[in-house]
């Protein structure tokens, strides 16, 4: 049996957070909400809640707090962890579908079909990692606990998900799970509404290129969307 956990960093979206937790449909003890300086603080949600005051946030650090929590909760059992935004509508059976896809393919990260193609593929890198347009959904993805992946905290706001994906490709691969579509209610709203986060995104891109030698947003010659 594979234990399933979810980690949800949040900031001032109480209604959306409750909806995300409700559609996730996990037991309360398997969900961790990280309240990043919310006003008022998060309360009365069916989840464990911890408070983090750092502003602007380091999203990679918040993910790592949650990943460490899930590892402790699993107590040596096989497990997976979903890293989720706080503004999602998740389809029924989301966690089971992600866990089953990783079991079937050996991938260490699974993510939903954000563009509705219904594809299901397993990508294991054999040689240099190359960017592609069909990228990991940074707002909703699931990691294998046994892989031991942690986010690189140099990527404070953007590119932490891309870095995890590229590292996962070099391990057991990543799998896009066809037919599982997550509704993301406010894509890029936090970045668009906060100059500090927009500036941080530029710094994160520079750090990503310095680490990998290219941007995750580039495409191979001749590749189309």
Task: Give an account of the 3D structure.
With 225 residues, this protein is α/β, with parallel strands linked by helices. It has one domain: Spore Coat Polysaccharide Biosynthesis Protein SpsA, Chain A. The chain contains six helices and ten strands, in the order βαββαββαβββαββαα. The strands form two sheets. An eight-stranded mixed beta sheet has the order 3-2-1-4-8-6-9-7, sandwiched between helices.
Q: Tally of extended strands?
A: 10
- Note the main sheet: 8 strands, mixed
Give the rounded overall mean pLDDT.
89
Question: What gyration radius follows from the Cα positions, in whole Å?
Answer: 17 Å
Low-confidence stretches: 118-122, 124-128, 219-225
Provide the β-strand percentage band. Answer: 15-25%
Order the strands across the largest sheet as they lie in space.
3-2-1-4-8-6-9-7
Q: Supply the number of helical segments.
A: 6
CATH superfamily: Spore Coat Polysaccharide Biosynthesis Protein SpsA, Chain A
**Silhouette:** globular
What series of H and E elements makes up the topology?
EHEEHEEHEEEHEEHH
In short:
The chain is α/β, with parallel strands linked by helices. It has helices spanning 14-24, 59-74, 94-105, 160-169, 189-192, 195-212; strands at 3-10, 31-36, 48-52, 79-84, 88-89, 109-112, 121-123, 140-144, 174-177, 183-184. The chain contains six helices and ten strands.
């Amino acid at each position: 049996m594979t234990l399933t956990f979810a980690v949800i960093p949040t900031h001032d979206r109480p209604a959306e957070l409750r909806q995300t937790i409700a559609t996730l449909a996990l037991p309360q003890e398997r969900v961790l909400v990280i309240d990043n300086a919310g006003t008022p603080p998060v309360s009365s949600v069916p989840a464990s809640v911890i408070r983090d005051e750092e502003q602007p946030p380091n999203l990679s650090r918040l993910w790592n707090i949650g990943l460490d929590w899930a590892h402790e909760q699993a107590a040596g059992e096989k497990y997976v962890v979903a890293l989720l935004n706080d503004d999602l509508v998740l389809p029924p059976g989301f966690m089971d579908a992600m866990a089953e896809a990783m079991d079937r393919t050996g991938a260490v990260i699974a993510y939903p079909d954000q563009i509705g193609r219904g594809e299901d593929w397993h990508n294991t890198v054999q040689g240099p990692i190359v960017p592609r347009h069909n990228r990991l959904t940074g707002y909703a993805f699931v990691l294998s606990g046994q892989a031991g992946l942690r986010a690189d905290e140099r990527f404070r706001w953007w590119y932490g998900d891309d870095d995890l994906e590229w590292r996962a490709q070099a391990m057991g691969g990543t799998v896009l799970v066809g037919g599982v579509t997550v509704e993301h209610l406010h894509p890029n709203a936090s970045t668009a509404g906060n100059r500090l986060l927009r500036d941080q995104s530029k710094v994160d891109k520079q750090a990503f290129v310095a680490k990998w030698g290219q941007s995750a947003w580039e495409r191979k010659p001749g590749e189309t969307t």
